[in-house]
């Protein structure tokens, strides 16, 4: 790590969209703190980044409550030499199913990982960004936060909360130089959606692109919002969904 390098913490970086984001930010010169629960996958991501000439560290974290979020924030800040400049909240779970079959534990898991953890990561990291007068947060939401979809109610609702938090944080931290934005992906091929098979294609068929996206395509938009190319963009929710919510 060099002293002028930006430090980026990417949650959910052991897989899919988070991993592609970590790789792209590292390729753009950021030192990336790769986070997830699975150390084997995390170490492989870090190794890949280093082999490509970038710099990264892995920090294991189970993100479902305030303690997990604050511990990760503290560890990332330590590894970043006292700061984190960019936070990407990509860790998330998306269990689909009928409302009547949702357990209380399942409900709490979705809300804990998709809402509470990003909330307390921002609470832990954004004030220091604001003090330095610069920083960027990118939240990963979903197209089903924008419209009703059967069996995706609690997932969509958790991400709708993150959409509103994105705008609230833009209002709270933006005047201090911290930009907070979101990317709203449509169906995207990742390890997390692999089990959906053709159902993912069917979901994607309704949009103008007519196909699922790739993790790299979504990561491009996250990197845009996380870097100075988006210096006048605050509180935006950028759909990267093949046009699905537009038509
Ligand atoms: N793929 C899509 O079609 C799609 C569409 C719209 C929105 N999204 C959103 O995009 C984000 C990434 O999706 P993806 O498809 O890339 O997912 P993925 O391949 O399933 O990866 C999920 C990531 O979240 C991490 N994670 C899960 N539970 C965790 C926990 N308790 N603590 C810490 N980390 C945890 C996983 O790490 P470990 O397994 O190492 O813990 C993994 O790195 C999610 O927020 C998702 O809701 C995805």
Mind explaining what this structure looks like?
There is one protein chain. The chain is 44% helix and 17% strand. It is of the alpha/beta class and 247 residues long. The chain has one domain (7-246): Rossmann fold (3-Layer(aba) Sandwich), CATH 3.40.50.720. It has a seven-stranded parallel β-sheet with strand order 3-2-1-4-5-6-9, with helices on both faces. Strands 7-8 form a two-stranded parallel sheet. β2, α2 (39-51) and β3 (55-60) form a beta-alpha-beta unit. It is globular and about 50 Å long. The chain starts with 6 loop residues before the first strand and ends in a 7-residue tail after the last strand. The model has no long low-confidence stretch (mean pLDDT 97). The structure holds NADP nicotinamide-adenine-dinucleotide phosphate. Residues 12, 14-18, 36-38, 41, 61-64, 90-94, 113, 140, 142, 185, 187-188, 190-193, 215 line the site of NADP nicotinamide-adenine-dinucleotide phosphate.
Give the topology.
Blueprint: E1 7-11, H1 16-27, E2 31-36, H2 39-51, E3 55-60, H3 66-79, E4 86-89, H4 104-132, E5 135-140, H5 153-173, E6 178-185, E7 188-189, H6 198-205, E8 213-214, H7 215-226, E9 237-240
Helix pairs in contact: 1-7, 3-4, 4-5
The protein binds NADP nicotinamide-adenine-dinucleotide phosphate.
Residues 12, 14-18, 36-38, 41, 61-64, 90-94, 113, 140, 142, 185, 187-188, 190-193, 215 line the site of NADP nicotinamide-adenine-dinucleotide phosphate.
